[in-house]
Write a structure and sequence with these properties.
The chain is of the alpha/beta class and about 90 residues long. The chain has two helices and three strands. It has helices spanning about 15-25, 40-50, and strands at about 5-10, 30-35, 55-60. The N and C termini lie far apart (about 40 Å).
Length: about 90
């Protein structure tokens, strides 16, 4: 039996990304998905580049946090005019 530890939402914050990298370095984390729409995404992408041969790496579908990578006019039902996602309460 193998244990697969996934670190969700890589890049949602810089601190979370650093924690994920630490888990990968120590052999604990084997899988993560990337929040590509965060302002620091390019920086986080560089940090994890060295470890891509050690993990399964994907892209998270994020429609709640930060701003959309698509313009508001393409998805007006889930974004505000400033491209931030509409929060449901």
């Amino acid at each position: 039996m193998k244990l697969l530890v996934q670190s969700d939402d890589y890049g949602i914050s810089k601190a979370q990304a650093h924690g994920c990298i630490e888990g990968i370095r120590n052999g604990l984390i084997r899988n993560t998905g990337f929040f590509t729409n965060m302002p620091w995404a390019e920086e986080c992408a560089e940090w994890i580049r060295l470890y891509l041969n050690q993990i399964a790496f994907g892209i998270d579908l994020n429609i709640t946090t930060g701003k959309s990578v698509l313009p508001h006019h393409q998805i007006p039902t889930i974004t505000k005019e400033d491209n931030s996602f509409i929060q449901c309460h």
